[in-house]
Every structure is written in C-alpha cells, then in structure tokens.
C-alpha cells in the first residue's frame, strides 16, 4: 500500500487554522537561534492580518508550542519547549522498518526486483526488511544477512555518507575481501567510487558481490541529516544496457528521498556526515 497523498487545500478536510498554525511554526523554525519574530513580521511573511497572526500566536503560546519574550511592541516569538517533548516522542514512536515498508512495496512493484532495507551494524550492512518483486528467477536473499560494505549496493550507499577518513578506518577493520573478479579491493579506487555514488545519489554493485547479480542502493537520512541506513533493489544482470541501470538508480534514489522525508529529513538543513543513532533502527544499534 502506497502512502496517501496530502489533501489539497480546497479539500473539505482542510482546516485552514491548523495549516496557519503549522506555517507559523515552520517560519519560526527557519529563524537563526536566538532570533525571534514580532507579530508584524510574522503576519507580513505569511500574508496574514495582524489580528490573525496574533490569535494564532496566542493559542500556540498557551499550549507551549511557541514562547514569547519582551512586552508590547518589543515582544518577540520563538519556538516553545513543548515541541522538544513532542519531537522526542515522535522519535521514540518511529520505526525505520514501518516508515520504509510501503515505499519498499512500491519500489519492488515498479522495478520488478527485490527491494531491501538495511542498517549498519558492526561495520556491515544488515538487512532488516525486504519485498520480493515479480522476478521469474528468485534469488536467495535472506533477512538478517550481513553484507560487506565495500562490495554491495547497500553497503556502498551507507559508506557514501561517510568522510574518507571514516571509510578508511572502517575498511581497515573489515578488509576489502575479493568476492568476484569485479570487486573493488583498492582503498583509493573505493573512495573515488564512493565520491561518484555520493554525487549521483545511488551506488551500484555491478557483479561485485556475486556473479551475474546487480544491486543498486541509496542512503536514507534521518531528521538530523545523518545516514540511518539504505534501501536497494537486487536482480539478475542479464546484459542490460548501462542506461537501464542509471534509470533504476534514479528510481531507487527517489524512493530513498521519500523515505528520508518521512523520517523528518530536511534537504535544506546542514549536511551531517555520520551514520545515525539507534532510535530509528529496529534491531541491534549501530556502533558508536
């Protein structure tokens, strides 16, 4: 089942006052730390009358979602601490598997390949969910399997989020085991490959982990911009043209982007080059 699209603003279910309150919160969230806004500034930014802006701010302030400083004409508004409590609760209730599942189903159906979800555990990509496509030949892909980070689409997608020094440290611990004749076993070559993967938004395992099998992975980013895992599609190579894999790569990348947004990722926020914490992961927590 695919996620339902948001209701249009002319829908009978659309509550204008709630939308206005969310707009106010989003506006205040975009301000630099310590810089509040006046009622007039908020009204002008959102196209609201001063009375409408004040009524919305008054209600949000009474519920702790907005805080105010000063008095009279010098009163400034900022986000309230009640949002921190709600944010913590949202994180506690968020499951990476649950968020990703409908997107995996759609991805498997669109690409006719097996879609998989993994997170980094003890330096390897561990598969925590998968959805089979309608392949004529089924591959032996197992839940909970540990995949080497340098030779698989899932692993390389996660590595592409790390700075070079962290990649070198990780492969120094794990090694660069040769799985097939096409496996990358040179650290410098791997780093160059990861830079290319980072630029295009997806990583390709071109018969590097198993002969005759391809895997295309893309990283998932959490609310803080850190990588919390990756998704991929896996199938038989069957002499497909290069443009087909690029097309599939963009499809996987777009699906990963939708999952990341559902996890609270803001593409306009500063980038974080780490692997995320355990709060969004079902199963063992990632190291560190």
Low-confidence stretches: 1-5, 277-288
Number of domain units:
2
Main sheet properties: 6 strands, antiparallel
| CATH architecture name of the largest domain | 2-Layer Sandwich
Would you give the CATH topology of the largest domain? Beta-Lactamase
Task: Find the CATH superfamily of the largest domain.
Answer: GAF domain
Shape: elongated
Highest CATH level, the class of the largest domain: Alpha Beta
Overall pLDDT: 85
Distance between the termini: 35 Å
Task: Please state roughly what percent of the residues sit in beta strands, choosing from under 5%, 5-15%, 15-25%, 25-35%, 35-45% or over 45%.
Answer: 15-25%
Strand line-up in the sheet with most strands: 5-4-3-8-7-6
Order of H and E elements: HHHEEHHEEEHHHEEEH
Can you count the beta strands? 8
